[in-house]
Amino acid sequence: LKPVKIGICGLGTVGGSTYQVLSRETELLSARAGVQLYVSHIGARRDNPHCATADTRVSRDIFDVARDPQVDILVELIGGTTVAKELIETALASGKHVVTANKALIAEFGSELFALADKHGVVIRYEAAVAGGIPIIKALRERLAGNQILWLAGIINGTGNFILTEMKDKGRAFADVLAEAQALGYAEADPTFDVEGIDAAHKLIILAAIAFGMPLEFTRVYTEGISRITPRDVDYAQELGYRIKHLGIAKQSEAGVELRVHPTLIPERRLLANVDGVKNAVMVEGSAVGPTLYYGAGAGGDATASAVVADVIDLARDIAAEQRPQIASLGVAQQNIVAQTIVPMVQVVTPWYVRLEAEDRAGVMAQITALFSDEGISIEALIQKAPSAGESKVPVIVLTNAAAQGRLDAVIAAMDKLESIADEIMCIRVEMLDV
Ligand code: NAP
């Protein structure tokens, strides 16, 4: 078999697992690729005690790997958007294909890097960048190519989903579960990327760019985190037959493309509502196929390595056939990528969950329902709870029919002016995920 040489930069969680999978399964993987795969060079500034590198060449300067003329495919697993970007640029300029798991880098600099790869006649593959081990990029880019993508919705951050699952199952508070997630090593030391939705937004723009053939414009994703969700909201949602999930949603509508990451109530009977713990899942609605669902491990060394190695095998097959990989990075050639109108959030129409505290006296409930009907919003369900001991106000939960955010904002602004309603009002979007 013809040899294809792989260089791995970064020997942390994913880098270590990728090296181990490639070393452990060399024969099987080489048979699949039709070439002799082997890791010829590792770039790691220090050893990984969990990953023995046998007699594989190791350089402390990762750029030695990017410049090594022997290396055919560079696997970037250092993360971040500065050194990683420079490393990939160096590898592309040396005529190497690149495989990466780096969603932040692809989301923020993908367009520039894909253009550079084109210029050098090589490609960048990034299956592991979205939903870890789940092969959603290949599915969306290639196996759903016969469809117009109508919408997709995904649980694409395992840490956030773990927190919401614990809140639901054990009635725990957000901050308490977050501390545990950090201790378990799920969440980053700075958890903002996970819980404020930035990581999910990185992944969503990648999926949307493929689904709609649009540029990777990360900053245009509306991003709302889960830190303000309370155990009470999780309970009330359940009472109404819903679960709260942190979803990334990309949807084609007449007004343009909706790109949004936010907490969402979804009916408990939907499969997505039952994706718990650190697992990820993405639902894609195609014009011909209808709904499809992809579920599995969204993180973890071995699961992510599974996606990295699949990209390596794809590229190795092309190298063996001495052909330039034919599938464009986003599934559409650079010159056919078209900018889309992004629908402003005030125009995005969804049903709403609204929780407020109102005075428990005659007429207040009528006042509340009148505010909704003044804005043309009809009420699907309304629950009034008993007051807590010593409280004069009672929790009221309203589930509305579909309404643009602009209309709901007007209702909330009117409520803010009423003495009978407490200042803090919680609004969460609802998605029926109808198929
Ligand atoms: P990690 O465990 O922190 O490993 C990163 C490795 O890169 C470490 O060996 C680190 O070396 C090295 N590194 C970082 N910056 C470097 C630099 N400037 N120069 C040289 N080496 C450098 O991270 P990871 O979890 O494997 O993540 C790697 C990538 O995979 C990231 O882009 C991440 O977003 C992505 N990803 C991870 C997962 C997952 O489950 N972990 C899932 C999907 C995607 P030191 O040890 O010396 O710092």
Distinctive features:
14 helices, 435 residues, single chain, binds NADP nicotinamide-adenine-dinucleotide phosphate
Question: What would you say this structure looks like, in words?
Answer:
The chain is α/β, with parallel strands linked by helices and 435 residues long. 36% of the residues lie in helices and 25% in strands. The protein has 14 helices and 18 strands. The protein has helices at residues 13-24, 26-33, 63-67, 83-93, 103-119, 136-143, 158-170, 174-183, 192-195, 198-212, 231-239, 301-320, 364-374, 405-416, and strands at residues 3-9, 36-43, 57-59, 73-76, 97-100, 124-125, 149-155, 222-223, 242-253, 256-267, 279-286, 290-297, 349-350, 352-359, 379-384, 393-400, 403-404, 426-430. Strands 7, 8, 9, 10, 11, 12, 14, 15, 16 and 18 form a ten-stranded mixed beta sheet that branches. Strands 3-2-1-4-5-6 form a six-stranded parallel beta sheet, with helices on both faces. Strands 13-17 form a two-stranded antiparallel sheet. Helix 1 (13-24) packs across helix 12 (301-320), helix 2 (26-33) crosses helix 12 (301-320) and helix 4 (83-93) packs parallel to helix 5 (103-119). The longest helix is centred in the C-terminal third of the chain and has 20 residues, at 301-320. The chain is elongated, with a radius of gyration of 24 Å. The two termini are 48 Å apart. The site of NADP nicotinamide-adenine-dinucleotide phosphate (NAP) has 23 residues, from helix 1. NADP nicotinamide-adenine-dinucleotide phosphate binds at residues 10-15, 44-46, 62, 77-80, 83, 101-103, 128, 132, 299-300, 304.
